[in-house]
Structure formats: C-alpha cells, structure tokens
Amino acid sequence: MRPHILQNGDGDCVNLQLLLPLGFLPQPFSCPSPATLMTQPTTVSDAIPIDVTSNIEIAVFSADNEAAIHLLEIIQCKSSPPTLKSDENSIGYQLSIPLSCDSPDARRFRWRIGAGASPALVEKGLCCCEPDILLCPPGRTPSSAAVRRFIKDIHATIHFHPESGVLLLKTHSSRPLIYEQGDVDNDDLILDMLGKVNTCVLRRQRNFLRFGQYRFALEFLVKDDDLSRVKAQLDENLGCRFNGSRPSQLLNFIPMQHPETSWNVWLHQKIPNTSITSGVNIHTGQPVAVKKLQITARSRQHTLHRLQLACQYKSRPDKGVLGIIDAWCEHKTSPPCLFSEAEASHRCRRLFYSMPLAEHHFLNMPWKKIDTNTRLLYFHQTLVGLAELHRQDVTHGNILPESLLLLPGTKPTPMTDRSLPRKAVISLSMQRLDKPNPSVCVAPEVWRNQKTVDGPKVDVWALAASWLFAFVRPPSGIKITKASYQTLQKTLDTQIEKGFMKESFAALLRQMLAWEPHDRPSTTELLADTTWESVLVHAQSIEDNKKRKRMEKMQRTPSQGRRVRLLSPDVND
Ligand SMILES: [Zn+2]
C-alpha cells in the first residue's frame, strides 16, 4: 500500500533528465577514482574527522532506484563526500560509529540528510553546516533545482534513540518522507513535520525510504563478529536513561532478520520469568514493556475496569501508579473493542498493553548500592501510589516486590548526564486472583478467612512486606502464622541493631505489619507520618542541586543546547 502523492508535473521533467544512461552524465571523465575519494579530507566545516581504524561501519544509506543512483553518482563526481562509496553494483553513504571514544559526542551518533545549503546561500557565504548524507549536487544546475523540489536543505536526521538505542529517523520538512511498510500493520508510513508522525524507528535490516521520486535503502551491516562490540559501545556511549545499566540486556539495537511487531510496538525480547516482552514504540523509539492478557467471561469486567484505570496514569508518573501507554486487542484495534463495543466484547479474548519499560523491581533491585535516604524515597513513592488507588476505592489485592517498579527518570536529558533520578511506581495487577500464593506478602488474616478481609489493610501489609526485600530476603512460599510472625519481628530487631534500618522507619514498618488488621494504619495516615519528612527534604535538595547545575551548564555553553539551524526557508512548505 503505497500512497501516490508525489506525482507532479515537475517530477516528470526531473525523471527525464535524471534517468539518462550513466554515460550521459555531465563530465563523467572528471571524476576522481573511488580510491582518491576515500582518502580526500572532508571540506565540510563542522564535519568530524574520520579515522578508519577507530570506526565501525554499522549501516549503509544507498541508492535504490535509477533516479537515486544517478543523483548519488553526480554528487560523487562533483562534491566527493568522503563517506560516499561505490562499486559496480551500488552507491551509498557509509554510516559508522566510533568504536571507543572518551567524550561521547552526539554528532558521532547522528547523521543529517538533505540537499545542503541552497546556491543562493552558498553565494552569499552563509552556509554553515552540510548534511552528512548529501542528496544534491552543488551549484545552480537543472538537477540541483529538481532535487530541491523534493528534498530540503536539512530534510531529516537519523540518530540513536538516547534511551532505547534503536535508530530513529526524524523529518524536519513538511514535504513527505515515506518509510515503506514502516507503520502499524506494515502500512507505509508518511513522515511529515507538520503531521501526526514525524519520527519512526528503522526496524528492519533493510529499510526503504522515499524522498519524492528518489528511493533509498538503509541497510544494517553489522557482522556477527562485531555485534557484541557495537552493543557494548552503544551501552557505553548512548547515555541511556537506564542509570548505568546495559539496555542491550533488554533491547536489540540492531534489527534482526524478521522483526516482529504487535500494534505499534517492535517486539524485542521476552523478559525471563515474566509474561513481559520488551520492545520499542515504532514511532517514538521509546522503550516499552508489552503484556498479554487472556480474557475470560468471569474476569472481563474486572480486567476492563483495571485497564481503564491504569490508562488514566499514562502521563502522570507523580501519582505513583504505573500507567498504561496503549492497549489493543487481537482484532488490531486500539483501544481494544472490549472497551467500547458491548456486543463485540465477548469475542475479544486476547488483549495486549504497553507500559514504560523498567529494568528493576523491588525483587531484583541491587539494593546494596542504594543509600538509606534513596530507599526511603522509593518506599514513599510506592506508598503514594497505593494511597492513590485507595483514594479511588481500588484495592490492589496482590502487591509483591515484583509489582513495585523502578522507572528511569521522566525528564529528557542530555546524552552525558548519567546521574538520573529514578521513580518508583506500583503496578496494578490486571487479573483477579482466586487464591493467593503463599508468601510473606500475604497478610495472616487472608489464610483465616479470605472472604471477609479488609482489602486496603491487606494491601498495607503487602506493601510493608514488599519493602522488606530491600533489606532481607525472606524465604519464599511461606504462610504467615503465629510462629513465622515471631521470626519476622526478630528479623526487624536485628536490622535495627545492625543499623541497617532507621528506628523511626522500623516503627512504621511494625505498624504496617501489625497482626490484627485494625491495628494497621491507613495509607492516608501512613503518608502523614513524620518519617518521610527528612526523606522528602533530602530529595528536594538533590533536585534543586541538579537544577542549579543544569542552569550553570547552560550559562557556560549557550550554543550547545540549540537545535540545528535550518539553512534557508523552505519555499514550498
Ligand atoms: Zn477485540
């Protein structure tokens, strides 16, 4: 399904001129040989010196139809860009990344695509930055004029997404750029700066892009031998927001042979011991987690309510509840038909939803590296989440350390900033639990009579028990009885004696883990406890400190934060 939107009268003239056989190209004999091309220094003012030994080629942006082939050949003859290489079968720009670099330079991980400064600007001496992937011959020529009808000075950029590390294409023009089969359901995706979508993830090994009549292929070239080195390099230098962990453990930077998608998510890896698959949003490159749900007649209403509730927290991470980004169903509809059509809802059996991707939860968190104040801050954030649910008259019903997730910081950050705050949230369980599995997180009264329990008080117990995992590792599969309750109390005593736990916090924990449910405070009462005061003051001071540093940095380097300045007004836009 390719939209036919680029056929115009001017395009036909261009075709005639550019589709001349190769022998008729202007000045074919003045071309330097490819060998000379490769060693010529770049004449571009802000280009990065290319050191062959320290770079690794990851992709090639090559011509894929006759119009594009002729275009690149003219450019090779007239401008000789150093990364434009050709042999008897193909011609294209090589995209490489440095194999090691001491100071991660954003420019080394992004490439600008475009026609470059217009002849008028060049004549006035006003051109400042040339595209890395130049798609227009220099000077005032018929072919240059023809190209500029479709391709702007800086038309698009390709860069690594700073969080997921996937390659993202972004348009800077309102002239359409088409990523063939790049949208949901493998439809063609039209990128348009002024339209709904202006970025997309290049998710195939070979990606076809059309700028007007010119068709190019961006092909990933990383060999198996190089893959681990490239992954390590991207882990190291992309400044991803996974706080120093390695996103390659969760995501695939380089596309595989047959990329699998589900709605708007390119699926990457099944996360072991969970029902979660990691992936990235095909438009934004944002890392997400996808979960599949089986809907039964009994669970339908419960699940529907929970999903709709979680959708409300999509852009409100400060509420402490994990929000759902998108939900869709097996009928390729989003929101799922279960949400809207009463008569169709019974046939909607398989549902999917996406959430922000978290590498850590309270069970697998490396707690030893986390200081006391930060731990307490995370506990507080999850308490805020539970209080929010209780305020909405919703009982969680199944809080475990695995339901308390640590999300990467929510603010976009420059590539070099590694000290990023994380945010703890509580994730709702979508399916109703008939019978809980024995665990320290199940309040003792549940085993006595599940039917008459006070849901919010059971939640308070479960939250406190889940926090315990930051200090100790309780045995799995135990039921809390009078005897095991004694052991639990003794464990708390030991933690205080050893100085691992603040006494005021331990007192709070004991209240939450009271044997009798009516002795446990409500979430509102818990939030009012003075234990949190010092924690919140400390968190605020860190936040203020960061803000101050950011401001200082911006004042020191006023030019760095600016966006790429476009070279000339886009007359056709
Ligand atoms: Zn459906």
UniProtKB/TrEMBL annotation:
PROSITE patterns: PROTEIN_KINASE_DOM
InterPro entries per UniProt: Kinase-like_dom_sf, Prot_kinase_dom
Region (Disordered): 546-573
Recorded GO MF terms: ATP binding; protein serine/threonine kinase activity
Record-annotated Protein kinase domain positions: 205-536
Gene Ontology terms: biological process: mitotic DNA damage checkpoint signaling
GO cellular component: cytoplasm; nucleus
Domain of life (superkingdom): Eukaryota
Name of the protein in its database record: Protein kinase domain-containing protein
Taxonomic path: Eukaryota, Fungi, Dikarya, Ascomycota, Pezizomycotina
